[in-house]
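Example record

The entry below shows one chain as it appears in the dataset: sequence first, then C-alpha coordinates.
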Amino acid sequence: MKKLLLALLTLPLVAAAAAQLSGHGYLITAVARTYLQGNVTASIDDHTAFDTRAVAAGAAQPWPLAARYPVPLDAAFAQDLEANDAIAFLVAHQGELASETYFGNYGPDSKTNSFSMAKTVVTLLLGMAIEQGIIDGLSQPLVEWLPEFNDQPFAQSATIGSLSSMTSGYEWDEHYYSPLSPTVKLLYGSDVEQFVLDGEFTREPDSYFYYSSASTQLLAVALTRALRQSAKAESLSAYLSTQLWQPLGMNADALWHLDNSGLELAYCCLNSNVRNFARIGQLMLQEGEWRGQQLVPKSFVNGMVTPGIVSYYGNSTWLRHDGSPDYYFLSGHLGQYVIVVPDHDLVIVRLGRSMPHIRPVEKLNDYVEYALALIDQDVGG
Protein backbone atom coordinates (compact mmCIF):
# COMPACT_ATOMS: atom_id res chain seq x y z
CA MET A 1 0.00 0.00 0.00
CA LYS A 2 2.85 2.40 0.85
CA LYS A 3 4.47 1.73 -2.52
CA LEU A 4 1.17 2.39 -4.32
CA LEU A 5 0.66 5.64 -2.42
CA LEU A 6 4.22 6.72 -3.18
CA ALA A 7 3.68 5.95 -6.86
CA LEU A 8 0.48 7.99 -6.96
CA LEU A 9 2.20 10.92 -5.29
CA THR A 10 5.19 10.69 -7.61
CA LEU A 11 3.23 10.37 -10.86
CA PRO A 12 2.32 14.07 -11.20
CA LEU A 13 5.95 15.05 -10.64
CA VAL A 14 7.11 12.60 -13.29
CA ALA A 15 4.46 13.86 -15.70
CA ALA A 16 5.47 17.47 -15.06
CA ALA A 17 9.14 16.68 -15.64
CA ALA A 18 8.30 14.81 -18.85
CA ALA A 19 6.24 17.76 -20.09
CA GLN A 20 9.11 20.16 -19.47
CA LEU A 21 11.67 17.93 -21.16
CA SER A 22 9.44 17.38 -24.20
CA GLY A 23 8.88 21.10 -24.74
CA HIS A 24 5.30 20.92 -23.50
CA GLY A 25 5.80 22.56 -20.14
CA TYR A 26 2.93 24.95 -20.92
CA LEU A 27 0.58 22.00 -20.41
CA ILE A 28 1.19 22.20 -16.68
CA THR A 29 -0.03 25.79 -16.70
CA ALA A 30 -2.94 24.86 -18.95
CA VAL A 31 -4.09 22.09 -16.63
CA ALA A 32 -3.81 24.33 -13.58
CA ARG A 33 -5.89 27.07 -15.23
CA THR A 34 -8.55 24.83 -16.79
CA TYR A 35 -9.07 21.27 -15.53
CA LEU A 36 -8.12 22.06 -11.95
CA GLN A 37 -10.68 24.87 -12.06
CA GLY A 38 -13.41 22.51 -13.27
CA ASN A 39 -13.25 23.56 -16.94
CA VAL A 40 -12.29 21.75 -20.15
CA THR A 41 -11.14 24.91 -21.90
CA ALA A 42 -10.42 28.55 -21.09
CA SER A 43 -13.11 30.36 -19.10
CA ILE A 44 -14.71 33.80 -19.33
CA ASP A 45 -13.65 34.38 -15.72
CA ASP A 46 -10.02 33.30 -16.02
CA HIS A 47 -8.37 36.73 -15.76
CA THR A 48 -7.65 35.99 -12.11
CA ALA A 49 -5.34 33.16 -13.22
CA PHE A 50 -3.21 35.36 -15.51
CA ASP A 51 -1.00 38.36 -15.14
CA THR A 52 -2.93 41.30 -16.58
CA ARG A 53 -2.37 44.92 -17.52
CA ALA A 54 -5.04 47.55 -16.95
CA VAL A 55 -6.52 49.50 -19.83
CA ALA A 56 -7.28 52.67 -17.91
CA ALA A 57 -10.66 54.29 -18.31
CA GLY A 58 -11.23 58.03 -18.01
CA ALA A 59 -14.40 59.99 -17.37
CA ALA A 60 -17.35 57.69 -17.96
CA GLN A 61 -19.98 58.60 -20.54
CA PRO A 62 -23.22 56.91 -19.43
CA TRP A 63 -25.28 55.22 -22.12
CA PRO A 64 -28.44 57.15 -23.03
CA LEU A 65 -31.55 55.11 -22.22
CA ALA A 66 -34.39 54.44 -24.63
CA ALA A 67 -37.84 55.69 -23.71
CA ARG A 68 -39.04 52.34 -22.35
CA TYR A 69 -35.72 51.01 -21.07
CA PRO A 70 -35.39 48.27 -20.10
CA VAL A 71 -37.68 46.51 -22.52
CA PRO A 72 -38.05 43.06 -20.89
CA LEU A 73 -37.13 39.92 -22.77
CA ASP A 74 -39.84 37.48 -23.72
CA ALA A 75 -39.85 34.67 -21.14
CA ALA A 76 -39.22 31.93 -23.71
CA PHE A 77 -36.32 33.83 -25.28
CA ALA A 78 -34.78 34.51 -21.87
CA GLN A 79 -35.13 30.86 -20.91
CA ASP A 80 -33.37 29.81 -24.12
CA LEU A 81 -30.51 32.22 -23.42
CA GLU A 82 -30.14 30.93 -19.88
CA ALA A 83 -30.37 27.30 -20.97
CA ASN A 84 -27.51 27.94 -23.39
CA ASP A 85 -25.25 29.48 -20.72
CA ALA A 86 -25.67 33.14 -21.63
CA ILE A 87 -24.65 35.55 -18.90
CA ALA A 88 -25.81 38.77 -20.57
CA PHE A 89 -27.92 40.01 -23.49
CA LEU A 90 -27.99 43.68 -24.45
CA VAL A 91 -29.71 45.57 -27.24
CA ALA A 92 -28.84 49.18 -28.18
CA HIS A 93 -30.87 51.05 -30.78
CA GLN A 94 -30.01 54.42 -32.28
CA GLY A 95 -27.28 54.86 -29.69
CA GLU A 96 -29.55 54.18 -26.70
CA LEU A 97 -29.83 51.15 -24.45
CA ALA A 98 -33.15 49.47 -25.14
CA SER A 99 -32.81 46.19 -23.24
CA GLU A 100 -30.29 44.67 -20.84
CA THR A 101 -30.62 41.32 -19.08
CA TYR A 102 -28.19 39.32 -16.93
CA PHE A 103 -28.19 35.73 -15.76
CA GLY A 104 -26.76 33.92 -12.77
CA ASN A 105 -24.37 35.92 -10.64
CA TYR A 106 -23.40 38.26 -13.48
CA GLY A 107 -24.36 41.92 -13.76
CA PRO A 108 -23.48 45.26 -15.39
CA ASP A 109 -20.09 45.42 -13.64
CA SER A 110 -19.00 41.84 -14.35
CA LYS A 111 -15.65 41.77 -16.13
CA THR A 112 -15.37 38.79 -18.47
CA ASN A 113 -13.09 37.57 -21.24
CA SER A 114 -13.74 38.80 -24.76
CA PHE A 115 -11.68 35.98 -26.27
CA SER A 116 -11.32 36.61 -30.02
CA MET A 117 -13.47 39.75 -30.03
CA ALA A 118 -10.12 41.31 -29.09
CA LYS A 119 -8.90 40.63 -32.64
CA THR A 120 -11.29 43.28 -33.93
CA VAL A 121 -10.08 45.74 -31.29
CA VAL A 122 -6.46 45.19 -32.36
CA THR A 123 -7.37 45.96 -35.95
CA LEU A 124 -9.17 49.15 -34.86
CA LEU A 125 -5.91 50.14 -33.16
CA LEU A 126 -4.06 49.33 -36.37
CA GLY A 127 -6.34 51.73 -38.25
CA MET A 128 -5.52 54.49 -35.79
CA ALA A 129 -1.80 53.74 -36.00
CA ILE A 130 -1.95 54.02 -39.79
CA GLU A 131 -3.80 57.34 -39.57
CA GLN A 132 -1.15 58.64 -37.16
CA GLY A 133 1.72 57.55 -39.42
CA ILE A 134 3.01 54.92 -36.98
CA ILE A 135 2.37 52.15 -39.54
CA ASP A 136 2.67 52.96 -43.26
CA GLY A 137 -0.53 51.17 -44.24
CA LEU A 138 -2.18 47.80 -44.74
CA SER A 139 0.08 47.14 -47.71
CA GLN A 140 3.31 47.66 -45.75
CA PRO A 141 5.48 44.51 -45.95
CA LEU A 142 5.30 42.75 -42.61
CA VAL A 143 9.01 41.94 -42.67
CA GLU A 144 9.68 45.66 -42.15
CA TRP A 145 8.42 45.19 -38.60
CA LEU A 146 9.10 41.46 -38.31
CA PRO A 147 12.57 41.03 -39.87
CA GLU A 148 12.86 37.59 -38.25
CA PHE A 149 11.01 36.31 -41.36
CA ASN A 150 13.33 37.89 -43.92
CA ASP A 151 14.64 34.49 -45.00
CA GLN A 152 11.18 33.09 -45.79
CA PRO A 153 10.06 33.72 -49.40
CA PHE A 154 6.32 33.73 -48.69
CA ALA A 155 6.79 36.11 -45.77
CA GLN A 156 8.56 38.54 -48.10
CA SER A 157 5.29 39.22 -49.95
CA ALA A 158 3.00 39.15 -46.91
CA THR A 159 1.69 42.46 -45.62
CA ILE A 160 0.52 43.94 -42.33
CA GLY A 161 -3.00 43.87 -43.73
CA SER A 162 -2.83 40.18 -44.57
CA LEU A 163 -2.38 39.42 -40.87
CA SER A 164 -5.67 41.18 -40.15
CA SER A 165 -7.53 39.53 -43.05
CA MET A 166 -6.18 36.08 -42.11
CA THR A 167 -4.61 35.62 -45.54
CA SER A 168 -0.90 35.93 -44.74
CA GLY A 169 -0.04 32.28 -45.40
CA TYR A 170 1.29 31.72 -41.88
CA GLU A 171 1.14 28.04 -40.95
CA TRP A 172 -1.21 27.39 -38.03
CA ASP A 173 -3.68 24.97 -36.47
CA GLU A 174 -6.54 26.79 -34.73
CA HIS A 175 -7.89 24.32 -32.20
CA TYR A 176 -9.13 25.09 -28.68
CA TYR A 177 -9.58 21.68 -27.09
CA SER A 178 -6.59 19.57 -28.14
CA PRO A 179 -3.84 19.91 -25.50
CA LEU A 180 -1.17 19.63 -28.19
CA SER A 181 -2.63 22.39 -30.37
CA PRO A 182 -0.36 25.40 -30.87
CA THR A 183 -3.35 27.55 -29.91
CA VAL A 184 -3.16 26.11 -26.40
CA LYS A 185 0.56 26.87 -26.23
CA LEU A 186 -0.15 30.39 -27.48
CA LEU A 187 -2.50 30.92 -24.54
CA TYR A 188 -0.50 29.25 -21.80
CA GLY A 189 3.09 29.54 -23.02
CA SER A 190 5.56 31.81 -21.29
CA ASP A 191 6.80 33.81 -24.33
CA VAL A 192 4.21 34.16 -27.08
CA GLU A 193 6.28 36.61 -29.12
CA GLN A 194 9.10 34.14 -29.57
CA PHE A 195 6.63 31.33 -30.19
CA VAL A 196 4.92 33.05 -33.14
CA LEU A 197 8.22 34.37 -34.48
CA ASP A 198 9.49 30.80 -34.64
CA GLY A 199 6.70 29.88 -37.10
CA GLU A 200 6.68 29.68 -40.88
CA PHE A 201 4.84 31.19 -43.83
CA THR A 202 4.03 28.23 -46.05
CA ARG A 203 1.48 29.62 -48.55
CA GLU A 204 1.32 32.44 -51.05
CA PRO A 205 -0.16 35.43 -49.19
CA ASP A 206 -3.69 36.52 -50.13
CA SER A 207 -4.36 33.23 -51.89
CA TYR A 208 -5.84 31.36 -48.95
CA PHE A 209 -7.99 32.24 -45.92
CA TYR A 210 -7.27 30.57 -42.60
CA TYR A 211 -8.52 31.99 -39.30
CA SER A 212 -5.49 32.20 -37.06
CA SER A 213 -4.93 33.57 -33.58
CA ALA A 214 -1.21 33.56 -34.34
CA SER A 215 -1.77 36.06 -37.17
CA THR A 216 -3.29 38.58 -34.76
CA GLN A 217 -0.48 37.97 -32.27
CA LEU A 218 2.08 38.66 -35.00
CA LEU A 219 0.16 41.84 -35.85
CA ALA A 220 0.34 42.80 -32.17
CA VAL A 221 4.10 42.23 -32.08
CA ALA A 222 4.55 44.48 -35.13
CA LEU A 223 2.21 47.13 -33.75
CA THR A 224 3.89 47.11 -30.34
CA ARG A 225 7.30 47.56 -31.96
CA ALA A 226 5.97 50.44 -34.05
CA LEU A 227 4.36 52.11 -31.05
CA ARG A 228 7.55 51.92 -29.04
CA GLN A 229 9.68 53.19 -31.90
CA SER A 230 7.37 56.17 -32.34
CA ALA A 231 7.25 56.74 -28.56
CA LYS A 232 3.47 56.77 -28.84
CA ALA A 233 2.97 54.01 -26.26
CA GLU A 234 4.91 51.25 -24.54
CA SER A 235 2.14 48.68 -24.82
CA LEU A 236 -1.09 47.87 -26.63
CA SER A 237 -2.96 48.39 -23.36
CA ALA A 238 -1.63 51.93 -22.98
CA TYR A 239 -2.43 52.74 -26.61
CA LEU A 240 -5.94 51.30 -26.31
CA SER A 241 -6.47 53.36 -23.16
CA THR A 242 -5.56 56.74 -24.63
CA GLN A 243 -6.85 56.21 -28.16
CA LEU A 244 -10.15 54.40 -27.59
CA TRP A 245 -11.03 53.44 -24.02
CA GLN A 246 -10.92 56.97 -22.62
CA PRO A 247 -12.38 58.81 -25.66
CA LEU A 248 -15.28 56.32 -25.73
CA GLY A 249 -16.04 57.03 -22.09
CA MET A 250 -15.82 53.41 -20.98
CA ASN A 251 -17.22 52.95 -17.48
CA ALA A 252 -14.35 50.88 -16.01
CA ASP A 253 -10.79 49.80 -16.63
CA ALA A 254 -10.35 46.74 -18.79
CA LEU A 255 -7.80 44.01 -18.10
CA TRP A 256 -5.69 42.41 -20.82
CA HIS A 257 -4.05 39.02 -20.27
CA LEU A 258 -0.24 38.97 -20.48
CA ASP A 259 2.34 36.28 -21.04
CA ASN A 260 5.30 35.92 -18.68
CA SER A 261 7.27 38.55 -20.61
CA GLY A 262 4.55 41.18 -20.22
CA LEU A 263 3.18 41.08 -23.77
CA GLU A 264 -0.57 41.24 -24.29
CA LEU A 265 -2.31 38.10 -25.53
CA ALA A 266 -3.69 40.31 -28.25
CA TYR A 267 -5.67 37.71 -30.17
CA CYS A 268 -7.86 37.20 -27.12
CA CYS A 269 -8.41 38.01 -23.51
CA LEU A 270 -9.50 41.62 -23.22
CA ASN A 271 -11.70 41.60 -20.13
CA SER A 272 -14.51 44.10 -19.73
CA ASN A 273 -18.27 44.36 -19.19
CA VAL A 274 -21.21 44.09 -21.54
CA ARG A 275 -21.85 47.85 -21.86
CA ASN A 276 -18.25 48.53 -22.85
CA PHE A 277 -18.24 45.73 -25.42
CA ALA A 278 -21.43 47.25 -26.83
CA ARG A 279 -19.66 50.58 -27.16
CA ILE A 280 -17.06 48.99 -29.48
CA GLY A 281 -19.95 47.87 -31.67
CA GLN A 282 -21.50 51.34 -31.52
CA LEU A 283 -18.20 52.90 -32.61
CA MET A 284 -18.09 50.62 -35.65
CA LEU A 285 -21.76 51.29 -36.41
CA GLN A 286 -20.90 55.00 -36.43
CA GLU A 287 -18.01 54.26 -38.83
CA GLY A 288 -15.34 55.24 -36.33
CA GLU A 289 -16.93 58.53 -35.25
CA TRP A 290 -17.65 59.37 -31.61
CA ARG A 291 -19.18 62.60 -30.33
CA GLY A 292 -18.02 64.57 -33.32
CA GLN A 293 -14.50 63.13 -33.35
CA GLN A 294 -13.31 60.66 -35.97
CA LEU A 295 -11.42 58.22 -33.74
CA VAL A 296 -10.85 55.60 -36.45
CA PRO A 297 -10.87 56.61 -40.13
CA LYS A 298 -14.25 55.98 -41.72
CA SER A 299 -12.68 54.34 -44.77
CA PHE A 300 -10.73 51.97 -42.53
CA VAL A 301 -13.81 50.83 -40.58
CA ASN A 302 -15.70 50.35 -43.84
CA GLY A 303 -12.79 48.25 -45.10
CA MET A 304 -12.98 46.08 -42.00
CA VAL A 305 -16.56 45.10 -42.89
CA THR A 306 -15.93 44.59 -46.61
CA PRO A 307 -15.42 40.97 -47.74
CA GLY A 308 -11.87 39.93 -48.56
CA ILE A 309 -11.05 36.75 -50.43
CA VAL A 310 -13.95 35.04 -48.66
CA SER A 311 -17.46 36.46 -48.40
CA TYR A 312 -17.79 36.00 -44.64
CA TYR A 313 -14.70 37.83 -43.36
CA GLY A 314 -13.22 41.27 -43.78
CA ASN A 315 -10.41 42.59 -41.59
CA SER A 316 -10.76 40.93 -38.19
CA THR A 317 -14.56 41.09 -38.52
CA TRP A 318 -17.07 38.38 -39.41
CA LEU A 319 -19.69 39.21 -42.05
CA ARG A 320 -23.19 37.97 -42.71
CA HIS A 321 -24.22 39.30 -46.11
CA ASP A 322 -26.60 36.52 -47.06
CA GLY A 323 -29.20 37.18 -44.39
CA SER A 324 -32.02 39.62 -44.03
CA PRO A 325 -30.92 42.03 -42.79
CA ASP A 326 -27.16 41.95 -43.36
CA TYR A 327 -24.95 42.33 -40.31
CA TYR A 328 -21.36 41.96 -39.14
CA PHE A 329 -20.04 40.78 -35.82
CA LEU A 330 -17.18 40.36 -33.39
CA SER A 331 -16.90 36.77 -32.24
CA GLY A 332 -15.17 35.10 -29.30
CA HIS A 333 -14.74 31.58 -27.94
CA LEU A 334 -17.66 30.19 -25.92
CA GLY A 335 -20.19 32.52 -27.52
CA GLN A 336 -19.03 36.10 -27.00
CA TYR A 337 -20.68 38.26 -29.67
CA VAL A 338 -21.10 41.89 -30.59
CA ILE A 339 -23.48 42.07 -33.56
CA VAL A 340 -23.94 45.25 -35.61
CA VAL A 341 -26.96 45.66 -37.91
CA PRO A 342 -26.28 48.89 -39.82
CA ASP A 343 -29.61 49.16 -41.66
CA HIS A 344 -31.46 49.22 -38.34
CA ASP A 345 -28.96 51.24 -36.27
CA LEU A 346 -28.72 48.26 -33.95
CA VAL A 347 -26.05 46.75 -31.69
CA ILE A 348 -26.57 43.43 -29.90
CA VAL A 349 -24.25 41.85 -27.33
CA ARG A 350 -24.45 38.26 -26.14
CA LEU A 351 -21.91 37.02 -23.60
CA GLY A 352 -21.82 33.53 -22.13
CA ARG A 353 -20.02 30.63 -20.54
CA SER A 354 -20.64 28.47 -23.61
CA MET A 355 -22.56 28.38 -26.88
CA PRO A 356 -24.41 25.56 -28.66
CA HIS A 357 -22.14 23.90 -31.19
CA ILE A 358 -25.09 22.79 -33.31
CA ARG A 359 -25.90 26.04 -35.12
CA PRO A 360 -24.13 29.09 -33.71
CA VAL A 361 -24.61 31.22 -36.83
CA GLU A 362 -28.31 30.44 -36.89
CA LYS A 363 -28.41 31.50 -33.24
CA LEU A 364 -27.05 34.88 -34.29
CA ASN A 365 -29.86 35.16 -36.83
CA ASP A 366 -32.29 34.43 -34.00
CA TYR A 367 -30.72 37.17 -31.89
CA VAL A 368 -31.03 39.68 -34.73
CA GLU A 369 -34.61 38.70 -35.46
CA TYR A 370 -35.57 38.96 -31.81
CA ALA A 371 -33.81 42.31 -31.34
CA LEU A 372 -35.63 43.76 -34.35
CA ALA A 373 -38.95 42.75 -32.81
CA LEU A 374 -37.85 44.15 -29.47
CA ILE A 375 -36.97 47.61 -30.80
CA ASP A 376 -40.28 47.70 -32.68
CA GLN A 377 -41.92 47.07 -29.32
CA ASP A 378 -39.86 49.85 -27.74
CA VAL A 379 -40.63 52.38 -30.47
CA GLY A 380 -44.25 51.40 -30.76
CA GLY A 381 -44.88 51.23 -26.99
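Notes for this example: The mean pLDDT is 90. The longest strand covers residues 86-93.
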